[in-house]
Design a protein that fits this description.
Elements: E1 3-7, H1 12-23, E2 27-31, H2 42-50, E3 55-58, E4 73-78, H3 79-84, H4 88-94, H5 97-101, E5 105-111, H6 125-129, E6 134-139, E7 141-143, H7 152-158, E8 175-177, H8 178-189, E9 195-201, H9 206-214, E10 233-238, H10 243-260
Parallel strand pairs: 1-2, 1-4, 2-3, 4-5, 5-6, 6-9, 7-8, 9-10
Helix pairs in contact: 1-8
InterPro entries: NAD(P)-bd_dom_sf (IPR036291)
Protein name: UDP-glucose 4-epimerase
Length: 261
């Protein structure tokens, strides 16, 4: 991979993809959609990538008629982050067929809930599946540095003594550490196989065990929703970061961010 376009370059998954690809020497066009989200640490994120000559930032004008992707670029869509913000409808209204068609390979990252058979016909899954080269990744809750404030773990670290309400879109049956997710996705992308892949932790009850070390005064329950995974989806277990190390890494990163404010 020489060139990549990331829709949601400053969102949780997209930003970590951006950092990893730049580290590998890949040219990255990062699409930031300020009308959908501006987080408290946007400037810190810009500083992290802005000095890299391989990075170019674009905004909503990227979706205007006449815009096209770089030749042979891989398109990453961080649908996962917009879904968690309840902004997926706005994202869908921007993405059009010509943008997706212009990619050499299209990588769609979505929440595990969309692996349910009842979602199989929904946008953006079918749009991406029409491409010659595509991969779709279904993720449970992901945690680690730069986790957004509306995720339960980050919210608990920011307000350690307050009872919290867990967002209904947080998948509490499983969790993965962010660097393990990015490593697995980028390794699989290089194989250029057309696959739908659900990533799950090799640690049983990963979310619950991580939450138990962070949450206070909050009732912790697993998601009741039953997952009926489409038969076309490959389920891959992810090994990697020790749970306690992942939680501590997120804590230390948040402390550093607070010091910058």
């Amino acid at each position: 991979m020489d060139k990549a376009v990331i829709i949601g370059a400053y969102e949780f998954i997209g930003f970590h993809l951006c950092l990893s690809l730049l580290e590998k020497g890949v040219e990255v066009i990062g699409i930031h959609l300020p009308s959908l989200h501006d987080d408290d640490y946007l400037e810190e994120k810009r500083l992290s990538v802005g000095r890299n000559s391989n990075f170019i930032e674009k905004d909503e004008t990227f979706f205007e008629p006449g815009q096209s992707l770089l030749d042979n670029s891989v398109l990453f869509i961080d649908y996962y982050s917009y879904y968690r913000m309840h902004k997926e409808n706005e994202l869908e209204s921007m993405i059009n067929q010509s943008i997706v068609n212009g990619a050499a390979q299209c990588i769609l990252i979505v929440p595990v809930q969309l692996s349910n058979k009842t979602f199989a016909a929904d946008f953006p899954l079918q749009l991406v599946k029409r491409q010659k080269d595509f991969q779709i990744y279904y993720l449970p809750t992901v945690y680690g540095p730069w986790q957004p404030h509306h995720f339960t773990f980050q919210k608990a670290l920011l307000n350690p003594d307050k009872p919290l309400k867990i967002d209904k879109r947080e998948w509490t049956n499983d969790a993965l550490f962010i660097s393990d997710v990015i490593t697995r996705i980028l390794a699989q992308v290089e194989k250029k196989e057309n696959l739908e892949i659900l990533l799950e932790s090799s640690i049983n009850d990963h979310w619950y065990k991580a939450a138990s070390t962070i949450l206070k005064n909050t009732t912790i329950e697993k998601t009741n929703e039953e997952l009926k995974v489409n038969e076309d989806i490959v389920v891959l277990q992810v090994d990697g970061t020790i749970l306690s190390e992942g939680v501590e890494t997120q804590k230390r990163h948040l402390v550093r961010l607070k010091q910058l404010k």
